[in-house]
Protein backbone atom coordinates (compact mmCIF):
# COMPACT_ATOMS: atom_id res chain seq x y z
CA UNK A 1 0.00 0.00 0.00
CA UNK A 2 1.25 3.46 -0.87
CA UNK A 3 1.98 5.81 2.01
CA UNK A 4 -1.24 7.32 3.42
CA UNK A 5 0.32 10.75 2.84
CA UNK A 6 0.35 10.10 -0.88
CA UNK A 7 -2.64 8.21 -2.30
CA UNK A 8 -2.97 9.39 -5.89
CA UNK A 9 -6.45 8.80 -7.28
CA UNK A 10 -7.72 8.62 -10.87
CA UNK A 11 -11.39 8.64 -11.82
CA UNK A 12 -12.39 6.54 -14.84
CA UNK A 13 -15.61 8.03 -16.24
CA UNK A 14 -16.69 11.62 -15.62
CA UNK A 15 -20.47 11.14 -15.71
CA UNK A 16 -23.12 11.45 -12.96
CA UNK A 17 -21.20 9.49 -10.34
CA UNK A 18 -17.61 10.16 -11.43
CA UNK A 19 -18.08 13.95 -11.46
CA UNK A 20 -19.77 13.79 -8.03
CA UNK A 21 -16.79 11.84 -6.66
CA UNK A 22 -14.45 14.57 -7.94
CA UNK A 23 -16.51 17.28 -6.22
CA UNK A 24 -16.89 15.38 -2.94
CA UNK A 25 -13.13 14.76 -2.82
CA UNK A 26 -12.38 18.37 -3.60
CA UNK A 27 -14.88 19.70 -1.06
CA UNK A 28 -13.65 17.44 1.75
CA UNK A 29 -9.88 17.61 1.16
CA UNK A 30 -9.16 14.40 3.07
CA UNK A 31 -5.55 14.36 4.29
CA UNK A 32 -3.38 12.14 2.12
CA UNK A 33 -5.90 11.69 -0.71
CA UNK A 34 -5.12 13.51 -3.93
CA UNK A 35 -7.24 13.34 -7.06
CA UNK A 36 -4.75 13.60 -9.88
CA UNK A 37 -6.34 12.23 -13.09
CA UNK A 38 -9.71 12.14 -14.80
CA UNK A 39 -10.15 9.79 -17.74
CA UNK A 40 -13.07 9.94 -20.16
CA UNK A 41 -13.58 9.61 -23.90
CA UNK A 42 -13.96 13.01 -25.61
CA UNK A 43 -12.28 14.57 -22.62
CA UNK A 44 -12.20 18.14 -24.02
CA UNK A 45 -16.02 18.18 -23.98
CA UNK A 46 -16.08 16.90 -20.39
CA UNK A 47 -13.54 19.43 -19.21
CA UNK A 48 -15.68 22.29 -20.52
CA UNK A 49 -18.94 20.91 -19.11
CA UNK A 50 -20.81 22.39 -16.13
CA UNK A 51 -19.86 19.32 -14.11
CA UNK A 52 -16.19 20.28 -14.33
CA UNK A 53 -16.80 23.83 -13.03
CA UNK A 54 -14.86 24.57 -9.86
CA UNK A 55 -12.52 21.58 -10.04
CA UNK A 56 -8.82 22.17 -9.45
CA UNK A 57 -6.79 23.39 -12.42
CA UNK A 58 -4.04 20.91 -11.45
CA UNK A 59 -6.03 17.89 -12.59
CA UNK A 60 -4.73 15.89 -15.52
CA UNK A 61 -7.57 15.21 -17.98
CA UNK A 62 -6.85 12.38 -20.35
CA UNK A 63 -8.46 10.13 -22.93
CA UNK A 64 -5.50 7.77 -22.89
CA UNK A 65 -6.63 5.00 -20.54
CA UNK A 66 -3.12 3.53 -20.23
CA UNK A 67 -1.98 6.77 -18.64
CA UNK A 68 -4.11 5.91 -15.61
CA UNK A 69 -4.21 2.10 -15.71
CA UNK A 70 -0.45 1.80 -15.91
CA UNK A 71 0.68 5.25 -14.79
CA UNK A 72 1.71 6.52 -11.38
CA UNK A 73 -1.68 6.65 -9.65
CA UNK A 74 -2.31 4.37 -6.65
CA UNK A 75 -6.06 3.92 -6.83
CA UNK A 76 -8.58 3.81 -9.66
CA UNK A 77 -12.21 4.84 -9.12
CA UNK A 78 -14.21 3.16 -11.90
CA UNK A 79 -17.49 4.92 -12.71
CA UNK A 80 -18.02 3.99 -16.35
CA UNK A 81 -19.98 0.74 -15.98
CA UNK A 82 -20.55 -2.38 -18.09
CA UNK A 83 -18.57 -5.59 -18.54
CA UNK A 84 -16.58 -4.77 -21.64
CA UNK A 85 -13.94 -3.27 -21.70
CA UNK A 86 -14.12 -2.71 -17.95
CA UNK A 87 -13.19 -6.25 -16.94
CA UNK A 88 -10.02 -6.09 -19.00
CA UNK A 89 -9.17 -2.56 -17.82
CA UNK A 90 -9.59 -3.35 -14.14
CA UNK A 91 -7.56 -6.53 -14.48
CA UNK A 92 -4.80 -4.46 -16.01
CA UNK A 93 -5.08 -1.90 -13.18
CA UNK A 94 -4.82 -4.62 -10.49
CA UNK A 95 -1.87 -6.26 -12.26
CA UNK A 96 -0.22 -2.83 -12.41
CA UNK A 97 -0.52 -2.55 -8.62
CA UNK A 98 -3.51 -0.20 -8.39
CA UNK A 99 -6.29 -0.49 -5.83
CA UNK A 100 -9.73 -0.39 -7.43
CA UNK A 101 -12.97 1.12 -6.14
CA UNK A 102 -15.92 0.52 -8.43
CA UNK A 103 -19.67 1.22 -8.57
CA UNK A 104 -20.09 -1.29 -11.41
CA UNK A 105 -22.80 -3.77 -10.37
CA UNK A 106 -22.79 -5.77 -13.60
CA UNK A 107 -19.06 -6.36 -13.40
CA UNK A 108 -19.17 -7.38 -9.74
CA UNK A 109 -22.32 -9.49 -10.08
CA UNK A 110 -20.84 -11.51 -12.95
CA UNK A 111 -17.07 -11.37 -12.37
CA UNK A 112 -16.46 -10.78 -8.65
CA UNK A 113 -14.83 -14.14 -7.95
CA UNK A 114 -12.19 -13.76 -10.64
CA UNK A 115 -11.44 -10.08 -9.95
CA UNK A 116 -11.22 -10.56 -6.18
CA UNK A 117 -8.84 -13.47 -6.70
CA UNK A 118 -6.67 -11.29 -8.93
CA UNK A 119 -6.73 -8.50 -6.33
CA UNK A 120 -5.59 -10.97 -3.64
CA UNK A 121 -2.78 -12.27 -5.85
CA UNK A 122 -1.52 -8.71 -6.29
CA UNK A 123 -2.17 -7.70 -2.69
CA UNK A 124 -4.46 -4.90 -3.82
CA UNK A 125 -7.95 -3.92 -2.69
CA UNK A 126 -11.01 -4.27 -4.91
CA UNK A 127 -13.96 -2.58 -3.20
CA UNK A 128 -17.47 -2.20 -4.57
CA UNK A 129 -19.77 -0.94 -1.84
CA UNK A 130 -21.39 1.62 -4.15
CA UNK A 131 -22.56 -1.14 -6.50
CA UNK A 132 -25.59 -1.97 -4.33
CA UNK A 133 -28.06 0.58 -2.96
CA UNK A 134 -25.90 3.61 -3.88
CA UNK A 135 -25.57 5.70 -0.75
CA UNK A 136 -27.01 3.08 1.64
CA UNK A 137 -24.01 1.28 3.20
CA UNK A 138 -25.59 -2.17 3.15
CA UNK A 139 -22.56 -3.97 1.67
CA UNK A 140 -19.99 -2.61 4.17
CA UNK A 141 -22.49 -3.20 6.97
CA UNK A 142 -22.87 -6.84 6.02
CA UNK A 143 -19.15 -7.28 5.29
CA UNK A 144 -18.04 -5.67 8.55
CA UNK A 145 -20.95 -5.58 10.94
CA UNK A 146 -22.95 -8.73 10.28
CA UNK A 147 -20.38 -11.41 9.46
CA UNK A 148 -20.75 -12.74 13.00
CA UNK A 149 -24.35 -13.66 12.29
CA UNK A 150 -25.70 -16.37 9.99
CA UNK A 151 -27.81 -14.38 7.52
CA UNK A 152 -30.49 -16.61 6.05
CA UNK A 153 -32.85 -14.10 4.50
CA UNK A 154 -32.59 -10.88 2.50
CA UNK A 155 -35.41 -8.89 1.04
CA UNK A 156 -35.63 -5.40 -0.23
CA UNK A 157 -36.04 -2.71 -2.80
CA UNK A 158 -32.84 -2.47 -4.80
CA UNK A 159 -33.99 -0.49 -7.82
CA UNK A 160 -34.94 3.13 -7.20
CA UNK A 161 -36.44 3.60 -10.67
CA UNK A 162 -39.03 0.85 -10.13
CA UNK A 163 -39.75 2.14 -6.65
CA UNK A 164 -40.35 5.62 -8.04
CA UNK A 165 -42.71 4.19 -10.66
CA UNK A 166 -44.65 1.84 -8.38
CA UNK A 167 -44.98 4.34 -5.56
CA UNK A 168 -46.46 6.80 -8.10
CA UNK A 169 -48.79 4.11 -9.43
CA UNK A 170 -49.98 3.70 -5.85
CA UNK A 171 -51.50 7.21 -6.24
CA UNK A 172 -53.59 6.01 -9.22
CA UNK A 173 -51.35 6.56 -12.27
CA UNK A 174 -50.92 3.94 -15.00
CA UNK A 175 -47.61 2.27 -15.93
CA UNK A 176 -47.04 4.15 -19.21
CA UNK A 177 -47.51 7.54 -17.53
CA UNK A 178 -45.17 6.85 -14.62
CA UNK A 179 -42.54 5.46 -16.97
CA UNK A 180 -42.64 8.72 -18.90
CA UNK A 181 -42.40 10.69 -15.64
CA UNK A 182 -39.40 8.61 -14.57
CA UNK A 183 -37.73 9.22 -17.93
CA UNK A 184 -38.36 12.98 -17.80
CA UNK A 185 -36.97 13.09 -14.23
CA UNK A 186 -33.84 11.27 -15.41
CA UNK A 187 -34.50 8.14 -13.29
CA UNK A 188 -35.32 5.80 -16.17
CA UNK A 189 -33.29 5.18 -19.33
CA UNK A 190 -34.83 5.58 -22.80
CA UNK A 191 -34.70 1.75 -22.81
CA UNK A 192 -35.93 0.89 -19.29
CA UNK A 193 -35.47 -2.89 -19.69
CA UNK A 194 -32.71 -3.36 -17.10
CA UNK A 195 -34.77 -1.64 -14.42
CA UNK A 196 -38.37 -2.67 -15.10
CA UNK A 197 -37.62 -6.26 -16.09
CA UNK A 198 -35.62 -6.80 -12.90
CA UNK A 199 -32.11 -7.38 -14.32
CA UNK A 200 -30.56 -4.49 -12.38
CA UNK A 201 -32.10 -5.61 -9.08
CA UNK A 202 -31.09 -9.24 -9.51
CA UNK A 203 -27.45 -8.28 -10.19
CA UNK A 204 -27.52 -6.32 -6.91
CA UNK A 205 -29.25 -9.21 -5.10
CA UNK A 206 -26.42 -11.53 -6.15
CA UNK A 207 -23.76 -9.09 -4.89
CA UNK A 208 -25.63 -8.73 -1.62
CA UNK A 209 -26.09 -12.50 -1.22
CA UNK A 210 -22.37 -12.94 -1.77
CA UNK A 211 -21.52 -10.38 0.93
CA UNK A 212 -24.16 -11.42 3.45
CA UNK A 213 -24.49 -15.18 2.90
CA UNK A 214 -21.14 -16.07 1.29
CA UNK A 215 -22.76 -17.66 -1.75
CA UNK A 216 -21.54 -17.24 -5.32
CA UNK A 217 -24.45 -17.25 -7.78
CA UNK A 218 -24.92 -16.27 -11.39
CA UNK A 219 -27.51 -13.49 -11.80
CA UNK A 220 -28.89 -15.25 -14.89
CA UNK A 221 -30.05 -18.11 -12.61
CA UNK A 222 -32.33 -15.82 -10.58
CA UNK A 223 -35.88 -15.55 -12.03
CA UNK A 224 -36.83 -11.95 -12.74
CA UNK A 225 -40.43 -10.90 -13.37
CA UNK A 226 -41.20 -7.58 -15.09
CA UNK A 227 -43.26 -4.79 -13.54
CA UNK A 228 -44.63 -3.91 -17.02
CA UNK A 229 -47.86 -5.86 -16.49
CA UNK A 230 -48.75 -4.26 -13.15
CA UNK A 231 -51.72 -1.88 -13.57
CA UNK A 232 -53.28 0.85 -11.43
CA UNK A 233 -56.14 -1.54 -10.59
CA UNK A 234 -53.67 -3.84 -8.82
CA UNK A 235 -53.00 -1.11 -6.27
CA UNK A 236 -56.74 -0.83 -5.59
CA UNK A 237 -57.01 -4.56 -4.96
CA UNK A 238 -53.74 -4.57 -3.01
CA UNK A 239 -55.15 -1.84 -0.75
CA UNK A 240 -58.20 -4.02 0.00
CA UNK A 241 -55.75 -6.71 1.09
CA UNK A 242 -53.84 -4.29 3.34
CA UNK A 243 -50.93 -4.24 0.90
CA UNK A 244 -49.18 -2.26 -1.82
CA UNK A 245 -47.04 -3.40 -4.76
CA UNK A 246 -43.25 -3.01 -4.92
CA UNK A 247 -40.45 -4.52 -6.97
CA UNK A 248 -38.86 -6.84 -4.42
CA UNK A 249 -35.57 -8.69 -4.58
CA UNK A 250 -35.53 -11.56 -2.12
CA UNK A 251 -33.24 -14.43 -1.24
CA UNK A 252 -33.50 -17.17 1.34
CA UNK A 253 -30.80 -19.71 2.10
CA UNK A 254 -32.05 -23.21 2.88
CA UNK A 255 -29.20 -25.68 3.24
CA UNK A 256 -27.20 -25.67 0.02
CA UNK A 257 -29.91 -23.98 -2.03
CA UNK A 258 -30.59 -20.29 -2.43
CA UNK A 259 -34.23 -19.43 -3.10
CA UNK A 260 -34.08 -16.15 -4.99
CA UNK A 261 -36.45 -14.07 -7.08
CA UNK A 262 -36.97 -10.50 -8.26
CA UNK A 263 -40.31 -9.07 -9.32
CA UNK A 264 -43.35 -7.06 -8.36
CA UNK A 265 -44.84 -8.47 -5.16
CA UNK A 266 -47.61 -7.56 -2.75
CA UNK A 267 -46.15 -6.10 0.43
CA UNK A 268 -48.16 -5.54 3.63
CA UNK A 269 -48.60 -1.83 4.36
CA UNK A 270 -47.34 -2.55 7.87
CA UNK A 271 -43.96 -3.72 6.55
CA UNK A 272 -40.97 -1.32 6.53
CA UNK A 273 -40.50 -2.23 2.86
CA UNK A 274 -43.84 -0.58 2.01
CA UNK A 275 -42.74 2.66 3.62
CA UNK A 276 -40.07 3.45 1.03
CA UNK A 277 -41.24 5.91 -1.57
CA UNK A 278 -39.70 7.53 -4.63
CA UNK A 279 -36.19 6.40 -5.49
CA UNK A 280 -35.38 5.14 -1.99
CA UNK A 281 -33.83 1.74 -1.46
CA UNK A 282 -34.58 -0.54 1.47
CA UNK A 283 -33.01 -3.81 2.60
CA UNK A 284 -34.01 -6.10 5.47
CA UNK A 285 -31.53 -8.77 6.50
CA UNK A 286 -32.50 -11.60 8.85
CA UNK A 287 -29.89 -13.46 10.85
CA UNK A 288 -30.24 -16.55 13.03
CA UNK A 289 -28.68 -14.76 15.99
CA UNK A 290 -29.16 -11.02 15.46
CA UNK A 291 -32.65 -11.07 13.93
CA UNK A 292 -33.77 -8.35 11.53
CA UNK A 293 -31.69 -5.35 10.51
CA UNK A 294 -33.20 -2.67 8.26
CA UNK A 295 -31.27 -0.35 5.93
CA UNK A 296 -32.80 2.48 3.94
CA UNK A 297 -31.86 5.65 2.12
CA UNK A 298 -30.95 7.05 -1.28
CA UNK A 299 -30.15 4.14 -3.54
CA UNK A 300 -28.84 6.20 -6.43
CA UNK A 301 -27.84 9.67 -7.54
CA UNK A 302 -24.43 11.27 -7.98
CA UNK A 303 -23.78 12.55 -4.46
CA UNK A 304 -25.11 9.60 -2.40
CA UNK A 305 -23.20 7.15 -4.62
CA UNK A 306 -20.09 9.34 -4.44
CA UNK A 307 -20.24 9.17 -0.64
CA UNK A 308 -20.13 5.36 -0.84
CA UNK A 309 -17.17 5.50 -3.24
CA UNK A 310 -15.21 8.06 -1.23
CA UNK A 311 -15.84 6.04 1.94
CA UNK A 312 -14.41 2.97 0.16
CA UNK A 313 -11.45 5.01 -0.96
CA UNK A 314 -10.78 6.18 2.60
CA UNK A 315 -11.07 2.63 3.91
CA UNK A 316 -8.47 1.46 1.37
CA UNK A 317 -6.19 4.41 2.16
CA UNK A 318 -6.37 3.60 5.86
CA UNK A 319 -5.74 -0.10 5.28
CA UNK A 320 -9.14 -1.17 6.60
CA UNK A 321 -9.88 -4.47 4.97
CA UNK A 322 -13.16 -6.38 4.87
CA UNK A 323 -13.70 -9.74 6.48
CA UNK A 324 -13.27 -12.26 3.66
CA UNK A 325 -15.06 -15.47 4.66
CA UNK A 326 -14.91 -18.23 2.02
CA UNK A 327 -17.62 -18.02 -0.63
CA UNK A 328 -19.24 -21.24 -1.88
CA UNK A 329 -21.10 -21.94 -5.09
CA UNK A 330 -24.75 -22.57 -4.49
CA UNK A 331 -27.75 -24.01 -6.36
CA UNK A 332 -30.45 -21.44 -7.13
CA UNK A 333 -34.20 -21.88 -7.40
CA UNK A 334 -37.01 -19.39 -7.85
CA UNK A 335 -39.37 -21.51 -5.72
CA UNK A 336 -40.98 -19.94 -2.66
CA UNK A 337 -43.82 -21.14 -0.51
CA UNK A 338 -46.05 -18.06 -0.40
CA UNK A 339 -49.60 -16.83 -0.84
CA UNK A 340 -50.18 -15.55 -4.37
CA UNK A 341 -52.24 -12.76 -5.89
CA UNK A 342 -53.84 -13.59 -9.24
CA UNK A 343 -55.52 -10.84 -11.25
CA UNK A 344 -57.60 -11.77 -14.26
CA UNK A 345 -59.06 -9.59 -16.98
CA UNK A 346 -62.04 -11.46 -18.37
CA UNK A 347 -65.11 -11.20 -20.55
CA UNK A 348 -67.53 -12.03 -17.77
CA UNK A 349 -69.51 -15.26 -18.23
CA UNK A 350 -71.29 -17.50 -15.71
CA UNK A 351 -69.04 -20.27 -14.40
CA UNK A 352 -65.73 -18.45 -14.74
CA UNK A 353 -64.99 -18.42 -11.02
CA UNK A 354 -65.66 -22.13 -10.69
CA UNK A 355 -63.42 -22.81 -13.73
CA UNK A 356 -60.56 -20.86 -12.12
CA UNK A 357 -61.20 -22.50 -8.79
CA UNK A 358 -61.14 -25.92 -10.51
CA UNK A 359 -57.77 -25.20 -12.15
CA UNK A 360 -56.29 -24.17 -8.80
CA UNK A 361 -57.75 -27.15 -6.96
CA UNK A 362 -56.40 -29.49 -9.65
CA UNK A 363 -52.81 -28.49 -8.74
CA UNK A 364 -53.46 -28.48 -5.00
CA UNK A 365 -53.69 -24.69 -4.47
CA UNK A 366 -56.42 -23.38 -2.17
CA UNK A 367 -58.24 -20.10 -2.70
CA UNK A 368 -58.03 -17.70 0.23
CA UNK A 369 -60.17 -14.84 -1.12
CA UNK A 370 -61.97 -13.59 -4.22
CA UNK A 371 -62.25 -9.84 -4.82
CA UNK A 372 -64.26 -8.01 -7.44
CA UNK A 373 -64.50 -4.23 -7.40
CA UNK A 374 -67.72 -2.74 -8.77
CA UNK A 375 -67.91 -0.36 -11.70
CA UNK A 376 -66.02 -2.26 -14.41
CA UNK A 377 -67.65 -3.28 -17.73
CA UNK A 378 -68.70 -6.94 -18.04
CA UNK A 379 -66.68 -7.29 -21.25
CA UNK A 380 -63.37 -6.28 -19.56
CA UNK A 381 -63.71 -7.16 -15.91
CA UNK A 382 -60.64 -7.27 -13.66
CA UNK A 383 -61.01 -9.48 -10.62
CA UNK A 384 -58.65 -11.07 -8.15
CA UNK A 385 -58.13 -14.40 -6.47
CA UNK A 386 -55.62 -14.87 -3.67
CA UNK A 387 -54.31 -18.28 -2.69
CA UNK A 388 -53.21 -19.78 0.57
CA UNK A 389 -49.45 -20.39 0.73
CA UNK A 390 -48.31 -22.69 -2.07
CA UNK A 391 -45.23 -23.20 -4.19
CA UNK A 392 -44.46 -20.78 -7.02
CA UNK A 393 -44.37 -23.65 -9.52
CA UNK A 394 -47.73 -24.99 -8.28
CA UNK A 395 -49.53 -21.73 -8.86
CA UNK A 396 -47.68 -21.23 -12.17
CA UNK A 397 -49.03 -24.59 -13.41
CA UNK A 398 -52.61 -23.47 -12.65
CA UNK A 399 -52.06 -20.05 -14.25
CA UNK A 400 -50.82 -21.74 -17.42
CA UNK A 401 -54.12 -23.64 -17.68
CA UNK A 402 -56.25 -20.61 -16.75
CA UNK A 403 -54.51 -18.46 -19.40
CA UNK A 404 -55.90 -20.82 -22.08
CA UNK A 405 -59.53 -20.18 -21.08
CA UNK A 406 -61.37 -18.36 -23.90
CA UNK A 407 -62.80 -15.72 -21.54
CA UNK A 408 -59.32 -14.46 -20.57
CA UNK A 409 -58.57 -11.18 -22.35
CA UNK A 410 -54.87 -11.17 -21.36
CA UNK A 411 -52.49 -13.47 -19.50
CA UNK A 412 -53.30 -13.50 -15.76
CA UNK A 413 -51.00 -11.48 -13.51
CA UNK A 414 -49.49 -13.66 -10.78
CA UNK A 415 -47.63 -11.95 -7.93
CA UNK A 416 -46.10 -13.36 -4.78
CA UNK A 417 -47.48 -11.92 -1.58
CA UNK A 418 -44.97 -11.22 1.15
CA UNK A 419 -46.27 -11.81 4.65
CA UNK A 420 -44.84 -10.75 7.98
CA UNK A 421 -43.43 -14.24 8.13
CA UNK A 422 -41.51 -13.62 4.88
CA UNK A 423 -40.30 -10.24 6.16
CA UNK A 424 -42.51 -8.40 3.72
N1 LIG B 1 -26.08 6.92 -11.38
C1 LIG B 1 -26.28 6.34 -10.21
O1 LIG B 1 -27.08 6.78 -9.39
C2 LIG B 1 -25.50 5.10 -9.84
C3 LIG B 1 -25.69 4.52 -8.58
C4 LIG B 1 -24.93 3.38 -8.23
C5 LIG B 1 -24.04 2.86 -9.15
N2 LIG B 1 -23.92 3.45 -10.39
C6 LIG B 1 -22.95 2.86 -11.31
O2 LIG B 1 -21.94 3.83 -11.54
C7 LIG B 1 -21.41 3.68 -12.86
C8 LIG B 1 -21.53 5.02 -13.59
O3 LIG B 1 -22.88 5.43 -13.61
P1 LIG B 1 -23.27 6.91 -14.05
O4 LIG B 1 -24.71 7.07 -13.72
O5 LIG B 1 -22.31 7.89 -13.53
O6 LIG B 1 -23.13 6.79 -15.63
P2 LIG B 1 -22.93 7.98 -16.68
O7 LIG B 1 -23.49 9.25 -16.15
O8 LIG B 1 -23.42 7.48 -17.97
O9 LIG B 1 -21.35 8.14 -16.73
C9 LIG B 1 -20.50 7.25 -17.40
C10 LIG B 1 -19.30 8.05 -17.88
O10 LIG B 1 -18.39 7.13 -18.49
C11 LIG B 1 -18.05 7.60 -19.78
N3 LIG B 1 -17.81 6.46 -20.65
C12 LIG B 1 -18.70 5.51 -21.00
N4 LIG B 1 -18.10 4.57 -21.76
C13 LIG B 1 -16.83 4.96 -21.89
C14 LIG B 1 -15.70 4.41 -22.57
N5 LIG B 1 -15.78 3.26 -23.25
N6 LIG B 1 -14.54 5.08 -22.50
C15 LIG B 1 -14.43 6.24 -21.81
N7 LIG B 1 -15.45 6.79 -21.14
C16 LIG B 1 -16.63 6.17 -21.18
C17 LIG B 1 -19.23 8.41 -20.24
O11 LIG B 1 -18.81 9.33 -21.23
P3 LIG B 1 -19.83 9.97 -22.31
O12 LIG B 1 -20.35 11.19 -21.67
O13 LIG B 1 -18.98 10.20 -23.48
O14 LIG B 1 -20.89 8.94 -22.56
C18 LIG B 1 -19.66 9.10 -18.95
O15 LIG B 1 -18.92 10.27 -18.71
C19 LIG B 1 -22.22 2.54 -13.49
O16 LIG B 1 -21.54 1.32 -13.28
C20 LIG B 1 -23.51 2.54 -12.68
O17 LIG B 1 -24.14 1.29 -12.67
C21 LIG B 1 -24.61 4.55 -10.75
What does this structure look like?
The chain is α/β, with parallel strands linked by helices. It has 3 domains: 4-127, NAD(P)-binding Rossmann-like Domain (Rossmann fold, 3-Layer(aba) Sandwich), CATH 3.40.50.720; 138-298 and 329-333, Dihydrodipicolinate Reductase, domain 2 (2-Layer Sandwich), CATH 3.30.360; 337-419, 2-Layer Sandwich (Alpha-Beta Plaits), CATH 3.30.70.260. It is 34% helix and 25% strand. It has 14 helices and 20 strands. It has helices at 16-28, 43-47, 65-69, 86-95, 105-121, 138-145, 160-169, 175-184, 193-196, 199-213, 232-240, 302-317, 352-363, 392-403; strands at residues 7-12, 33-39, 60-62, 75-78, 99-102, 126-127, 151-157, 215-216, 243-254, 257-268, 280-287, 291-298, 328-329, 331-333, 337-338, 340-346, 367-371, 381-387, 390-391, 413-416. It has a 6-stranded parallel beta sheet with strand order 3-2-1-4-5-6, with helices on both faces. Helix 6 runs parallel beside helix 10. The radius of gyration is 24 Å and the shape is elongated. The model has no long low-confidence stretch (mean pLDDT 94). Residues 13-18, 40-42, 79-81, 103-105, 130, 134, 300-301, 305 line the site of NADP nicotinamide-adenine-dinucleotide phosphate.
